[in-house]
Design brief:
Helix content: 25-40%
Number of helices: 16
CATH architecture of the largest domain: 3-Layer(aba) Sandwich
Mean pLDDT: 93
Largest sheet: 14 strands, mixed
CATH topology of the largest domain: Rossmann fold
Strand content: 25-35%
Number of domains: 3
Structural class: alpha/beta
Low-confidence stretches: none
CATH class of the largest domain: Alpha Beta
CATH superfamily of the largest domain: ANL, N-terminal domain
Radius of gyration: 24 Å
Length: 541
């Protein structure tokens, strides 16, 4: 473990984890801090006692509807208290939650509902039409629905408005009011029983359902709590990241509930509302993705805003550009912690220690507590040497149980407890890990391997380039060649040509790595988590 030299002196390398469920941690927070604010949303609050009571009712209501241990219940909701109440109610009923991104259209939603076999769908009225159009060949028999604004109050009008649509519609407010106050006890094995099926792979193909047990999730929460000394009932978290994504769901929400944090919940990122929330609520931990740090660092009045309460700035989901990191850290005086992981690891596997003097591009740091990471040759499977690029593989108690209904893919990516991440990277001689790219994005130029990120980093070093991505373009002679899509800075538009950028790359890269084509675009589309949606560019090639 060469990375031990970077291990924080006050953090243990091993922790004994409690074998408990996610809802056990909510109940413990409610028992110890009943009057502590759990959720603040649009000016209204729920305490931990409120949240525990509402989730009990939701769980009991599900049981009254026939939900038993292991049944799947889908959440097609934006960030809201309804999402949190439904999520923990599902857990308490012994069921499995299926988060569905509210941005999903019919085809995407249909795949998740059909593949998971969800029996109940929880949603809001503005999304119900999309849902109703895809239910015919799924297992969904009931929809629990709110109007998105009622903050869990009774809503008789909703049932009348949507009645007679061929599926049983239940108003969330009525559902909670009529449900028993306590659910029946369900025996849950936290190590083995699934809490979540989170679908991943949406940036590149048909999503696969990642099965995460209660233990997987709790372990990753405690790894984070221990590493950064999170204070019980002493933290204020701001969550605008989608709760349907593992970063927002487990890394942010579940961790916060487990330490009785005050959680400021927003539907989405809005820079003014975010800054206002930090100042008003004295937020202590900020979870970000690269596009958010870009927006914050460019805000014209960012230096005038009071960000002094934030003691931890965290970034994940995609690499943070060095210039963005530098600019933001100069503003706040606090280093950004970058984490690397994936849904299959609930999600965190590595972090950047705060005492590293120089954070180089694409550094992902060292493995988190009780976690092993190594690099293997993508062709032989043998462990790679220092500075040799290969596939990052990981092992730890947070690693998923497998893929839902997909034993072949499970056996492919899980080998003797080691998770094949599909990410390329390398480890330096002193034990620091660096991210390179996704294996599936590798460009094969006549047998030579080209990593898009390497070409992108060269392009981004050109003063005219604001953003870019590189994909494979089919070529009759070489098979594939690199093709770059570039966003120019305003002051360079119509002043820099594609030939200029190709020449710039050829001066700094082997000729086969330099892009054969450069296309100028207005923006680089990204997922809500900040990852480049390469598929949109591959369709243009």
């Amino acid at each position: 473990m060469p990375w031990v030299r970077y291990w924080p002196a006050d953090v243990p390398i091993h922790v004994d984890y409690p074998v408990v469920t996610l809802y056990d941690r909510l109940r413990e927070s409610a028992r110890k801090y009943p009057n502590q604010v759990a959720l603040w949303y649009e000016g209204r609050e729920l305490t931990y006692a409120d949240l525990d009571s509402l989730t009990d009712r939701f769980a009991a209501g599900l049981q009254e509807l026939g939900i038993i241990k292991g049944d799947r219940v889908a959440l097609y909701l934006p960030n809201s208290p309804h999402f949190v109440v439904a999520l923990y109610g599902i857990f308490k009923a012994g069921a499995v939650a299926i988060p569905c991104n509210p941005a999903y259209k019919e085809e995407e939603l249909h795949h998740l509902l059909k593949d998971s076999g969800a029996k109940i769908l929880v949603t809001v009225d503005k999304l119900v039409d999309t849902a109703l159009n895809v239910l015919s060949d799924t297992s969904v028999g009931k929809i629990i629905i709110s109007d998105g604004l009622d903050f869990l109050v009774k809503s008789n009008d909703l049932g009348r408005r949507l009645g007679g649509l061929g599926v049983e519609i239940i108003s969330l407010g009525d559902f909670l009011e009529s449900s028993p106050s306590r659910p029946k006890d369900v025996e849950i094995d936290a190590r083995e029983d699934i809490a979540l099926i989170c679908y991943t792979g949406g940036t590149t193909g048909t999503p696969k359902g990642v099965m995460l047990t209660h233990y997987n999730c709790v372990v990753n929460n405690i790894q984070k709590i221990t590493t950064w000394k999170l204070r019980e009932a002493g933290e204020v978290l701001l969550i605008y990241l989608p709760l349907t994504h593992i970063y927002g769901l487990n890394w942010c929400l579940n961790t916060g509930i487990g330490i009785a944090a005050k959680i400021i919940l927003q539907q989405r990122f809005n820079i003014e509302k975010t800054l206002e929330a930090i100042e008003k609520h004295r937020v202590t931990i900020f979870y970000g993705v690269p596009p958010v740090y870009v927006a914050l660092s460019r805000h014209p009045e960012i230096k005038k805003r009071d960000l002094s309460s934030v003691r931890i700035w965290m970034s994940a989901a995609a690499p943070l550009l060095p210039e963005v990191r530098k600019r933001f850290e100069e503003i706040t005086g606090i280093k950004i912690i970058e984490c690397w992981g994936l849904t299959e690891a609930a999600p965190c596997l590595t972090f950047t220690p705060l005492d590293i003097q120089e954070v180089k591009p694409n550094l992902i740091g060292i493995p988190t507590i009780d976690t092993e990471v190594k690099v293997i040759d993508i062709e032989t499977g043998l462990e790679a040497g220092p500075n040799e690029v290969g596939e990052l593989v990981a092992k730890g108690p947070q690693v998923m149980k497998g893929y839902w209904n997909n034993p072949e893919e499970t056996s492919r990516v899980l080998k003797n407890g080691w998770l094949r991440t599909g990410d390329l990277g390398y480890m330096t001689e002193d034990g620091l890990f660096y991210y390179v790219d996704r294996i599936k994005d590798l460009i094969n130029v006549g047998g030579f391997k080209v990593w898009p990120a390497e070409v992108e980093n060269i392009l981004l070093s050109h003063p005219a380039v604001l953003d870019c991505t590189v994909v494979a373009e089919e070529d009759e002679y070489y098979g594939e060649v690199p093709k770059a899509f570039v966003v120019l800075r305003d002051e360079y538009k119509n002043k820099v040509s594609s030939g200029d950028l190709i020449g710039y790359c050829r001066e700094r890269l082997a000729s086969f790595k330099a892009p054969r084509y450069v296309v100028f675009v207005d923006e680089i589309p990204r997922s809500p988590a900040g990852k480049v949606l390469r598929r949109t560019f591959k369709k243009r090639t």
